[in-house]
Amino acid sequence: MGWTNTSWLEGFILLGFSEHPQLESVLFIFVLFFYLLTLVGNFTIMILSYLESSLHTPMYFFLSNLSFLDLCFTTSLAPQTLVNLRGPEKTITYGGCVVQLYVSLALGSTECILLAVMALDRYVAVCKPLHYVVIMNPRVCQQLASLSWLSGLANSLIHATFTLQLPLCGNRRLDHFICEVPALLKLACVDTTVNELVLFIVSILFLIIPPTLILISYGFITQAVLRIKSVEARHKAFSTCSSHLTVVVIFYGTIIYMYLQPSDSYAQDQGKFISLFYTMVTPTLNPLIYTLRNKDVKEALKKLFSGKLCTLGT
Hints:
By secondary structure, the chain is mainly alpha-helical. The protein has 12 helices and 3 strands. A 3-stranded mixed β-sheet has the order 2-1-3. Helix 2 runs antiparallel to helix 3. The N and C termini lie far apart (63 Å).
């Protein structure tokens, strides 16, 4: 490792939002509120997908993976952020920073691929409905989900390890509220051109290619939906697909803004607030979007709660 003994022993100071101390109490409530919503919303999706037989379909299998992923992603970041926002010490241990970097990078990369897999599922469902059950069989779904998770893990192992090799020469003041690659690159006391090139290539692989494939698939989906004669069937197809597309736009929009800007024009404060939205708010929106815009999920929720009430009544 190129990190100095100081980094090993003392860890890092996360500057976060310390330049705006008047905002820290508000941000603490903000992060806590959205973290609790993330826990409740994503646990609800996972439980519904497991208990309700009508939701035992490829779409909800992938949605359960997304909910579990978002749950883990936010949990890897929110507790440390809450501690630093509330306490006087804005520190994180070296080990904590390394774990946070590997885990958040793996989960974020996995979501990039998983959203593309979910778009493929919608494409097959709408454009090849007669072959949907055969094409998207349980084995294929498990393989696609495994591919997503393994891709994220591989990216994390390569990218994070490559970043952690950089010598920091005693620099401990990390100008962010989490340990992430761009912030760590700024601490390095050597030329980081190669690392920035790797970051750019990884960003192309995970942030440009997947949304491009998603947009292409939705072009075909739109053509197929417009050919559907039944108004009700057309509305259901648009409703289901629009939920996924909304999640895609929010997720990729914020993360592309974060990672694909030239470093010279990157406004650090603005970047931190965008990161806050991406890490804390986006995982909360996913279950809300799918619940509010999806008739199947709403019916499953009603069924679950009515069953609970009947049990309590007897």
